[in-house]
Amino acid sequence: MTDTPTQLFIGGSWLDAADGGTMPVDDPATGEIIARVADAGAKDAKLAEEAAVQAQEEWARTAPRARSEILRRAYEIILERTDELAHLMTAEMGKPLAEARGEVAYAAEFFRWFSEEAVRIDGGGGILPDGRNRMLLSRRPVGPCLLITPWNFPLAMGTRKIGPAIAAGCTMVLKPAPQTPLSSLALAAILQEAGLPDGVLNVVTTSRAGEVCEPLLRGGRIRKLSFTGSTNVGRLLLAQCADAVVRTSMELGGNAPFIVFEDADLGKAVDGAMLAKMRNMGEACTAANRFFVHHSVAEEFGRRLAERMGALVVGPGTRDGVDVGPLIDRAGRAKVEELVADAVERGAQVLVGGRAPEGPGCFYPPTVLTDVDSGSLLMDTEIFGPVAAILTFGDEDEVIRRANDTPWGLVGYVFTEGLDRALRVSERLEVGMVGLNTGLVSNPAAPFGGVKQSGLGREGGRVGIDEFLEYQYLAVPVR
User: Fold this and answer.
1) C-alpha to C-alpha distance for 152 and 246, rounded to whole angstroms
2) Which of 37, 141, 230, 409 sits CB 3.0–4.6 Å from 169 for a disulfide?
């Protein structure tokens, strides 16, 4: 970790926190401290905001092609340093190296995608219906942004927000999660190397999120918030944005249903379940939470899933052959333990897993539960762990009602071989995304986001840049 920056990145310079404070970064596989990074306070946040505000006007005038080429260079540098970045992520977050390498490629692709979108920002125009004026529409950057990213995909969640902001011509203050600051600092160094001008991106690592973020959101100089995290924190941030009417994008929690109908190909369904549940140890907002399986195939599906889950190797992400790394911290593991214990007390049967191992680290084994009571806590909670809870159903209307019976609506998964049913059920699910006979929906070229309390706006895809742009309408008299 010696080559990874550990200071704040403000105005193109690497700085200690104003009060000299630092915070530890732990390896969740061992509990050991692997680095100490600067712990920003309100004064540092103000300095970062000032740098972003000062850089905004000139950056907005920068040619789209120049912004595009910076993103393209950063994309190439990221890929060149895949192993270095993967080891960094595994050290601070725990995911196995194979998954970390996959995230590096995924993260880089956001920069390539938005490098291409940067040169396609357009407007419009025409004669208005009354014939008196021409309408000219232009699109311009919304202005300085505050970006808040989570710990579970520390590199990709950064590029998914930074990419469109750079492409649109916005400056930024990035506040990464305190558990995983190193990936964001490494990304800032890459962008600096790629030629990003001073002040366009500023990174403040902190354990004092409220002290850093609230003054920025209420102060009126930050014009856009893009947040990925829990719904509870999202509500708090939305309230803080109200005073200055800050534009918001919110990618919040999920409680994904995974529906297996009686005509499903069970091989595909189990493959999809492994992807939708075990990606990132289940620590993903897209993770399948509630497995609704038709009663006629539930026993066989459960048996196959338990066999696959039980074969996964749990251990430190740097060890060869490991499939499942540790959860992010002890609090995360304790939450999973509590949810499983509650389900078992209510009558759930444990087919595999269900008990944390002894020893150091925050490990929890892949777990499959059947006969889960619908009143169990894990039915109404984002599990964020490797636990598959199976319930049975009898007919289509019933399962759609139960799948939609949640305040969240990020993603749903549907497994059926019937085209009519596939389209019908997908359209009735109250979610922003549907995986049809697949357990993976995330892709930089697709719009990512949910409905209800799973968020506002979309990230990625052709619409991802829209969140960072405003329209201006110019009326010109017809002579």
Assistant:
1) 26
2) 141
Query: In sequence order, which residues have a C-beta less than 8 Å from that of residue 429 and are 6 or more positions away?
Result: 257, 400, 403, 404, 412, 414
Question: Collapsing DSSP states into helix, strand and coil, what is residue 360?
Answer: coil
The catalytic site residues sit at 251
Domains of the chain plus CATH, in order, are: 8-252+454-475 (3.40.605.10), 256-443 (3.40.309.10)
pLDDT of 46-57, one tens digit each? 999 999 999 999
- The residue whose two tokens read 């964020």 is 384
Count of beta carbons in the 10 Å neighbourhood of residue 251: 27
Q: In whole angstroms, how far apart are CA 26 and each of 93, 158, 316?
A: 8, 20, 13
Quick count: other Cβ atoms within 10 Å of Cβ 36? Answer: 12
Structural contact between residues 72 and 119, judged by C-beta atoms closer than 8 angstroms: no
Which phi and psi angles does 455 have, rounded to 5°? 140, 180
Contacts of 355 (CB under 8 A, 6+ apart): 365
In the chain, the amino acid numbered 216 is L
pLDDT tens, residue by residue, 246-301: 999 999 999 999 999 999 999 999 999 999 999 999 999 999 999 999 999 999 99
Q: Is 185 helix (H, G, I), strand (E, B) or coil?
A: helix
CA pair distance 238, 148, nearest whole angstrom = 13
Which three-class secondary structure state does DSSP give residue 433? strand
Query: pTM of the entire structure?
Result: 0.97
Phi-psi sector, 394: left (phi>0), alpha (psi -120 to 50), beta: alpha
Coil vs helix vs strand at 9:
strand
Say what the pLDDT of residue 1 is. 47
Distance between CA atoms of residues 308 and 317, nearest Å: 19
* pLDDT at res. 433: 98
Q: Within a 10 A sphere around the Cβ of 65, how many other Cβ atoms?
A: 11
Q: Say how far apart CA 16 and CA 122 lie, in whole Å.
A: 41
| String of DSSP letters for 199-262 | TSEEE---S-HHHHHHHHHHHSS--EEEEES-HHHHHHHHHHHHTTT-EEEEE----EEEEE-T
Name the residue among 441, 350, 440, 342 with its Cα closest to residue 390: 350
The residue whose two tokens read 């959101």 is: 217
| DSSP code, position 197 | P
